From TrEMBL, chain A:
GO terms classed as biological process: DNA repair
InterPro entries: Tfb2_C (IPR040662), TFIIH_p52/Tfb2 (IPR004598)
UniProt keyword Manganese present: no
Protein name: RNA polymerase II transcription factor B subunit 2
Subcellular location: Nucleus
This protein's GO CC annotations: nucleus
Organism this protein belongs to: Cardamine amara subsp. amara
Span of domain Transcription factor Tfb2 C-terminal: 381-447
Role played: Component of the general transcription and DNA repair factor IIH (TFIIH) core complex which is involved in general and transcription-coupled nucleotide excision repair (NER) of damaged DNA.
Principal cellular location given in the protein's record: nucleus
NCBIfam families reported for this sequence: tfb2
Family per similarity comment: Belongs to the TFB2 family.
Pfam families: Tfb2, Tfb2_C
Keywords from the named record: DNA damage, DNA repair, Nucleus, Transcription, Transcription regulation
Automatic annotation (TrEMBL), chain B:
Family as reported in the entry's similarity comment: Belongs to the TFB4 family.
Coarse class of the protein's main subcellular location: nucleus
Localisation: Nucleus
Family annotation (PANTHER family): GENERAL TRANSCRIPTION FACTOR IIH SUBUNIT 3, TRANSCRIPTION INITIATION FACTOR IIH TFIIH , POLYPEPTIDE 3-RELATED
Gene Ontology cellular component list: transcription factor TFIIH core complex; transcription factor TFIIH holo complex
This protein's name: General transcription and DNA repair factor IIH subunit TFB4
Free-text function comment from the UniProt entry: Component of the general transcription and DNA repair factor IIH (TFIIH) core complex, which is involved in general and transcription-coupled nucleotide excision repair (NER) of damaged DNA and, when complexed to CAK, in RNA transcription by RNA polymerase II. In NER, TFIIH acts by opening DNA around the lesion to allow the excision of the damaged oligonucleotide and its replacement by a new DNA fragment. In transcription, TFIIH has an essential role in transcription initiation.
Keywords annotated in UniProt: DNA damage, DNA repair, Metal-binding, Nucleus, Transcription, Transcription regulation, Zinc, Zinc-finger
A GO BP annotation: nucleotide-excision repair
Subunit structure: Component of the 7-subunit TFIIH core complex composed of XPB, XPD, TFB1/GTF2H1, GTF2H2/P44, TFB4/GTF2H3, TFB2/GTF2H4 and TFB5/GTF2H5, which is active in NER. The core complex associates with the 3-subunit CDK-activating kinase (CAK) module composed of CYCH1/cyclin H1, CDKD and MAT1/At4g30820 to form the 10-subunit holoenzyme (holo-TFIIH) active in transcription.
Amino acid sequence: MPQVRIIAKNFMDMVASLPAIKLDKLYNNVFICEAILRSLPPLAKKYVLQMLYITDPVPATMMEEWVLADGASKHRVAIDRLIQLRIFSEISDRKKGTSYNLNPTFQNNLQKHIISGGVLPREPMNSDNAIKLPSLQELETYALKQWECFLLQLINSGHGEKLTGISSSMMKIFQRGLMSQRDRDGPRLTESGFQFLLMDTNSQLWYIIREYISNAEERDVDPADLISFLLELSFHVTGEAYNLNTLTDVQRNTLKDLADLGLVKLQQGRKDSWFIPTKLATNLSVSLADSSVRKEGFVVMETNFRMYAYSTSKLQCEILRLFARIEYQLPNLIACAITKESLYNAFDNGITSDQIITFLQQNSHPRCADRVPSIPENVTDQIRLWEADLKRIEMTQAHFYDEFPSKDVFEAACDFAREWGGLLWEDSKRMRLVVKSEIHNQMREFLHTQSK
Amino acid sequence: MPSVASKLYSDDVSLLVLLLDTNPLFWSTTSITFSQFLSHVLAFLNAVLGLNQLNQVVVIATGHSSCDYIYDSSSTSNESSGTGLPVLFGSLLEKLGDFVTKYEQLSKEEEFENGIASSLLSGSLSMALCYIQRVFRSGHLHPQPRILCLQGSPDGPEQYVAVMNSIFSAQRLMVPIDSCYIGIQNSAFLQQASYITGGVHHTPKQLDGLFQYLTTIYATDLHSRGFVQLHKPVGVDFRASCFCHKKAIDMGYICSVCLSIFCKHHKKCSTCGSIFGQSKLDVSDKKSKAPDT
């Protein structure tokens, strides 16, 4: 079965895939150097720090001595990453072997950052000139509300409710890959769309941002500019107001879209307007790293397949509805049950049992999360069993051969197919066989030579 | 203790509690000035904060007979002055200045009869542990804590019991104590602290390259330590101080009830009050003296 998976692919892969000139240009910005440093695997961070004041190339053999034998694979990963991002440049010398050098621009900028301490990308506005700033709490609820609105719109775009200011063309771009446009029943979530909903907020955010950036060229925006602006944004202070006048036109337009996603809050004053970054924006560079960020869960799963979700969110309810039957809803509690039918429905939509189980595990209520296992074993087993029920038959594309001229030819053909690992079934009495369609061409050639 | 691992943000988010030796009696005797030293340390703190957005740094100053929090990255970032980034070291320097002037008076009045210019390591260690304990209890998620002692002054044997108690509670909390000793003699306290808690102890040879030592050894997060070659100590000075005269001793008397250590024989344990029998040494003394009387 072909597996289409949406992986919240690391944003840095995107940065790494930028052309070399653009990447070098990005490193002129101190904040990007800093954000990139933060996104590196722990070991790579250590190497960068260690080599921060070393100007001569460091031989690879020497670096290998820095790690224990257990860490060899991690060492390889770290070095590869550094080279990919052009932070390390490789110098090969026939006598001394390979050695690595830190990218001078990157090195300079980081040195500056570390000695002088970071300077803010731009000065926040003075709070005294009649700006009423929302409290951090308000800002967070605003951000989450905005983001949920966006997600809801993403799934139910068919219902035509206009919740956020995102243009429908932009929405189409986001939906690409997540929704399939069917003629009759309107857009429907695809398999990857369901997987998207089960991811945590940060991964979802990055998926959307990634789509946004990859689409930038169609809107005549340089992806490198966009990346640098987004990374810079993550260094602003949450809850402070920044004047819009300090931004370029492109950045201002981008900001409008980001406000719809809940990354920033826009406010209009009498004279000028300003933006306030929310937690979603300042966390952007946190979630860049591979390490997963854990958050508090809300689901209590019982051994009798009933599930209680302490949540007021409409979105969470929709997500649970993907694989469970909602029985009733109280103001802060959703009671539902996992049934065979609800799960078949989910499997039908391409959600796998593992995804459901990991979702339940990741979101289990703190009280349950302390228990081992956090989800009752009989439930996880049953979910897996029901999925296995649906997969009793496996389909393989195949070709059928019969009417062989002689037993010898038939047996030779069987052996040939076996050698290629494509023999599925044979009936020596009536001289018939079935092979996988991948080796059909080879088989045909083989039979031609046999018949000559 | 509840499972610590489940309450961590992720593997490499760390909380570094730095114990900074500001003892003026030590800094008047060193090859590098305090300001040079401080610039290395500030750069190191910047680097630690730069490694991960969730990293947290707390600095505690250790004076001759005083200690105080002088910097906490988690609290200053919420201030309205917009110091979410290391501009904040202005505030550190300011607090440090306050700290030094405040305790200048105190230390002038005191007499240094014994001539040992030690710092109040036990005080700052317990402050660090209190802070970490608060972090453990505060919320659901917390960074992985570790303590780094940047010490230059010699050990104060009179603090032996307090320091050892702090070390053992750090061990219980599974908080490693890293130590970087920049003084001339060796510090038995710090060697033992790092040895017992699984931290790293190192005495840098060249102090002008302190930043490199700090980043290479002490910036490594606990997760990465599992697969990185770190400095291994050659030997650990396990000497204890006696409870009666606070002297470091190689051999002494131990109370069999409460394990207090004494350099001389006593009739009664000063800690728990148990009465000791005669020591063998004394008995043989008396025997030899008997014929004379």
